[in-house]
Amino acid sequence: MRNYWALLPAIAVCVVLILIYAVPTLINPQWSSNVLGMFRQQSELQLGPKQIQSRRMLAGALVIAAFALIGFNVSLNREANGCYQAAKAWGAIDDKTQTADPCVDMIFGSFFGDGGGEVLEKTQQPVPAYQLVKGKKPKYLNWIQHRPSYDGLDLVVGIGSDCASDLKVIQGEDKITVLVDQTEPCPQSKDISVLPVKLKQPLGARKIVTVDDKPLEQINPDLDSWGSVLKKLATGG
User: At what angle do helices 8-27 and 49-89 cross, to 10 degrees?
Assistant: First the structure.
């Protein structure tokens, strides 16, 4: 599990301190300066009904705040880890300068080109994978820079940023060809550009291929579920 938020230890301390106060107060609002006071029938400090209600409301609000802090951290981890896993699925290599905030530094929507235009070079480079966008939309796209709109989005193709401007998508009657219009192989990259593709007609039985009609691998990276992230945070996985 990639721990996105450096303040996680501080959050853990805050949550523990909140619970140390809030849980005994919910059990026995007469509790004052001694933890053992919550087990006493009588306390040195006798509270009226309104004061008891106020203390319980405050303790309840603090418990809610503690869970909100935990949820906020889980949400950040979920989003960051999802972006990291998506970038890796598209072929990104690890770089310490990039992984601190993968949703910003490791993966982003295409800034250059839309996959259109003619193929100009005599030889081209293959593209390894694509993602079919239908039904459940990949949530990691919501968190990346320059994110594409889900409206009219049929395919996503990720490629190293050095080759993004030369990515071409050729939509034919019997196949869709995705390639990089360069004579030299694309170098390994620490960041990935994802190109959204709108099909001119439904995919149907058409194959999605690259150079030499080799089929592309279909991948499906996305955010981990909340339960999965909680488990990873708890176990350090």
Answer: 150
